[in-house]
Amino acid sequence: MDKLRGQRSLFGEILDWMLAPLLLLWPMSVALTWPVAQSIAHRPYDRALGETTRALAQQIRVDRGRVAFTLPTGAADLLRADEADQIYFQVLGARGEHVSGDSTLPVPPQDEIPAVGELRYRDDQVHNQDVRVAYLWVALPGAPRIPGTAGPALVQVAETLGKRSQLATEIIKGVILPQFVILPLAVLLVWLALARGIAPLGELQQRIRRREADDLSPIDEMEAPEEVSPLVRAINDLLGRLDRSFATQKRFLADAAHQLKTPLAGLRTQAELAQREIDAGQRDPEALKRSLQQIAHASQRAAHMVNQLLAMARAEDRGMAARAVDVNLARLATETVRDFVPRALEHRLDLGYEGPGAEGNTTPTERSRVLGQPLLLREMLRNLVDNALHYTPPGGTVTVRLICDPFGQVVVLQIEDSGPGIPASERDLVLQPFYRVLGSNVDGSGLGLAIVAEIVRQHGATLTVNDTREGPLPENTSPGARFTLRFAASKLPVERPTGSAVA
Q1: CA–CA gap between residue 316 and residue 252 (Å, rounded)
Q2: Among the four 103, 138, 308, 420, which has the fewest Cβ within 10 Å?
Q3: What is the pTM (predicted TM-score) of this model?
Q4: How many alpha carbons lie under 13 Å from residue 77 in its C-beta half-sphere?
Q5: What is the DSSP code (8-state) at residue 352?
Q6: Do residues 60 and 91 lie in contact, with contact meaning Cβ atoms separated by under 8 Å?
Q7: Residue 398, Cβ neighbours under 10 Å: how many?
Q8: Tens digit of pLDDT for each residue in 266-309?
Q9: Residue 88 forms beta bridges with which residues?
């Protein structure tokens, strides 16, 4: 679905967000301009209509107790001289009686209180035509002495809306028509401004493209726009991590090549020596046997080195670590210890397990569940036990211990031995690839503990190294080494195993 939608364009998205409000505001401006134009168009015509109403009001008088109105000569022709609109007028007496003008002209609302001398306006209809009406209440001279009078007289002048609508339309045209030119020009200017604004991004892209494949130096943030500085910093951080990763890989490959060179050279030397002895006609079975044993030993070291390199590659595989499942660490530990029992007996070592699942321990094994990758956790346990067996002299002890938090928060795994121990100054160094403690005469690849450290890191656990025996030691007693690993306990619901020994 994401591929079908296509790649997003930052330029197009910014352009859309800038033009969409502009295109939305244009019809809104048209809608808002229309009532404003009508209000502007009403003002001059209302003023003229009001003057006409006041002029007619001056012609009202009282004659013999009655309201009289005389339209001046030519005034009627003047009222009807407008070719665009029709004008109506009406004069009503004090009792509302019709005095002069168009009798069909509507009167003001009955609930309106007359205000003598105040000119008012309203919208109404005459003969089904919309009109604008100006009306004025006129006080009658001597009205209190005229019997039967009830109030002031009313003068109304109405005009149809032809000229007003025409003026409002002209105002709308004068406002909207220039916008038809301004709007495309604004779109063009916005497009040019955006193209100019994102030009530094194109320059940054070209600088990155011109880089050599092995150039992992940081990008100069000062040459990038301020808005993309966080992105440049993130890229620089990635380049730094890649540089460190490549340096580590190069160092690892160099060390691996150096470590493999020794067993392979020994293998070749012993093979050539055996071949020379055979070519020289020497038939000493013991000498030939020793050569073959050396060849077998060198090939075993090379095979062990290759296996450790593969294990290291698996440990560094983030994809494998991400495929975490619920693992019963107690079962995994007991199975690992069981696998190493024959080797421990061969070297006269006491290898044991303490924790859930052991004889006499009533802690449920479900408390030892952690979230992880079973293959990596098994490799971690095997390397720790193998390391302890390697460095523990005959007659010593190696213990695998599992401690479960009663509150279900932490699972602690300990592997301790009675060997020579690890000096405090070298406890961090032994976790690095190919590092060997000086003075140790034990064969090994130097990768076991590095693999353990990587697996622990992938699982978000912690690893500490200290002495098995602390404080003053008796004569001829070694401090031993204890590896303590702390894992977060799994919070997943308990699932009964169906044929699996670890999950």
Answers
A1: 12
A2: 103
A3: 0.47
A4: 2
A5: E
A6: yes
A7: 25
A8: 677 777 777 777 777 666 677 667 777 777 766 766 666 666 66
A9: 158
